[in-house]
Amino acid sequence: MSTTEQPTGHAANADIIGRDEIDDIEAILSVSNVDVDEVEHIVKDNADAIFTWDYSLARPQLRKLYEKAKVGQWNGTTDLPWDTEVELDEVVTSDQAAFSAGLSPDHYAGTVVEKWGDKEWLEFGIDSRRWTLSQFLHGEQGALLCTAKITETVPWYDAKLYAATQVVDEARHVEVFARYLDEKMDGGFQVNAHLRMLLDDIIEDSRWDMTYLGMQVMVEGLALAAFGFMHQMTEEPLLKQLLRYVMSDEARHVAFGVLSLKEVYSEMTDRELMDRQEFAFEAAIRMRDRFLQQEVWEKQGVNPKDVVPLVLRDPTRDVFQQMLFSKIVPNCKKLGLLDRNESWLRRRFEEMNVIQFEDWEDTGSEYLKFELGADVA
Ligand SMILES: [Fe+2]
Ligand SMILES: [Fe+2]
Fold first, then answer.
1. Does 377 have pLDDT greater than 80?
2. Total domain count for the chain?
């Protein structure tokens, strides 16, 4: 139910996301990782490193965030209970009982999945978790590279200080997700092609605010919602604590993006804002595409083309899918991205069924609720 008609000035869907219809399954599934043995992936970052000689305190909100970050550090090696025994079969079975793998089994009549018994659903559930945590891991590495880049490219002193703390945070996140996958899950999955394409686009863009928009607002906004969901859902104590610690950092990171871009975007022209709206839309679609987890279906011997159209219409899945945007939409609203240029991004979010979150709390101040020691539901 997409449209190729765009208000004046905006590019067509095909130019932004490579297809006209946002739900074009063939086009989505045609994007896949064809080199799963790749070890090194090189991307040009196209940016100037900027010194500033102005060391005055110009942005108190960012400085406050920097002070919070310095005392909010934790040690992935010593602060998490790595001696926890993780029995994957048991953990995934009990978590699935609470959430049925995010899918409604009776929704898949007429496909091979209809005949799946407990054993197949369990295998799918384990691989689904392995895949999800792997994409978190790869996204964390993207955040590590993006934040190192921001430290160089942002022209503001207060932001450079803060960004440097985020580099350490992201190193820690990469460390703990990689260790969890290796020690507790027998390894993970390669990067999903939709995610890699998004990370490449963010890194390649020469404009410093685009790194923030792509990473801090879109990727980390989605991560904060996804981590929160898994933190609430899982009964596995090590993973639960790991996610809680990561979330305490992640909420600051999203706040960093929102507070910085608010200042920049309020002064931009419609034309400049248009590019940012298109980029936010592209990022939203790439992230939605990746959550179809085509690699997990393939591993179970199921052709993704047979089930993905049903996944898109699965009511259980739909709730989860929408919830992923619960941080992104209010943050985009706060930045003025929803309604500039004839509400172009609002229309796109309506089409994606996620506009209902627009008045939820934005993350500019919400990060205080996620501090370690605070009670996150
Ligand atoms: Fe992170
Ligand atoms: Fe982060």
1. no
2. 1
pLDDT at 23: 87
Give ion ligand 2 contacts, CB < 5 A: 143, 220, 250, 253
Whether 233 is covered by a domain: the verdict is yes
Answer whether 221's CB lies under 8 Å from 287's CB.
Answer: no
Nearest ligand atom owner, CA of 250: 2
- Specify the pLDDT at position 3: 44
Region of 341 (left: φ > 0; alpha: ψ -120 to 50; beta: rest) is left
Q: Which of 214, 354, 339, 331 lies closest to 262 in space, CA to CA?
A: 331
**DSSP result, 171-187:** HHHHHHHHHHHHHHSS-
Q: What is the pLDDT of residues 30-67, one digit of tens each?
A: 888 888 888 999 999 999 999 999 999 999 999 999 99
Tokens 């905006």 belong to which residue? Answer: 10
Q: Which residues contact 13 (CB under 8 A, 6 or more apart)?
A: 2, 3, 4, 6, 19, 20, 21, 22
How far is 119 from 98, CA to CA, in rounded Å?
17
- Tell me which H or E stretch contains 167: helix 157-184
Distance from the CA of 95 to the center of ligand 1, in angstroms?
24
Q: Among candidates 250, 233, 258, which has minimal Cα distance to 177?
A: 250
Residue 329 domain-assigned (yes or no): yes
For residue 318, the one-letter residue type is D
Rounded CA separation 306/298 (Å) = 11
Distance 369 CA to ligand 1 centre (A): 17
Domain that holds residue 256: 59-70+88-95+114-370
Q: What does the pLDDT look like over 140-177, one tens digit per residue?
A: 999 999 999 999 999 999 999 999 999 999 999 999 99
What is each CA distance from 42 to 129, 203, 377, in whole angstroms?
28, 10, 40
User: What stretches of 132-220 adopt beta strand conformation (E)?
Assistant: none
Centroid of ligand 2 to alpha carbon of 368 (angstroms):
15
CA of 318 to the centre of ligand 2 (A): 25
Asked whether residue 75 is assigned to any structural domain, the reply reads: no
